[in-house]
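Recall from the previous lesson that a structure prediction takes nothing but the amino acid sequence as input. Here we apply that procedure to Sigma factor-like helix-turn-helix DNA-binding protein from Luteolibacter soli. The sequence below is the only information supplied.
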Amino acid sequence: MTGNSFHPTRWTLVLRSHGESEDARAALSELCAAYYEPVVIFLRRDGRGDDAAREKAHAFFAVVLEDGLGSPDPGQGRFRSYLLGALKHFLINQRDAELTAKRGAGAEHVSLTHETDTAPGLPMPGVSDDTLAFDREWALALLARALSALETEHTGKSKVFETLKPWLDGGAETSQAEAARILGMSENAVKVAIHRLRARLRELIRAEVAATVNDPAEVADELRHLIAVASSE
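The prediction returns the following tokens.
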């Protein structure tokens, strides 16, 4: 995605058809798979071990994919906000069902009702700053997806990509002169290659963000927010 173009993307497609079409369901499934890890890490913060968190995450995504979206407000625009709000409702519903079962009345299935991640009545007891933590993991997952896409684009040039990758993720421990020696390139050519990789990575990150919002005008704001939370530690 470049310039001002904004074609219907995954989340846009889901919202436009209320998740009812086959393409929309496939898009929702892809989005859920892409952002599975932030949900797992959020669930760990509530005191669960890894296995328990992943089991709960599987149950949550099964409900999302089976029941659909409920009534998300397209004006909210962000899949990130929808997913966290739905997750909090899922946990509240499960906790209520467990309490009901303990009272001997059995557990009643309750469909997800959409709220935003900042809606009242959704705090997680014992968890401080949970939304910020979720957003941070979301940002890291998005960056990882963009890096993976960039690496895929450089299949066949893996030595170049692996040598220059540290200048993309902040892990460079050697000089660009050393990278030039390893690759048999001039130092200036290495600088140009790194510049191009960074530019392409920015494009891929923007495309990933665009796939999770419903309005092209929201992309810049979402990018700023995710950059801020990713840099907050």
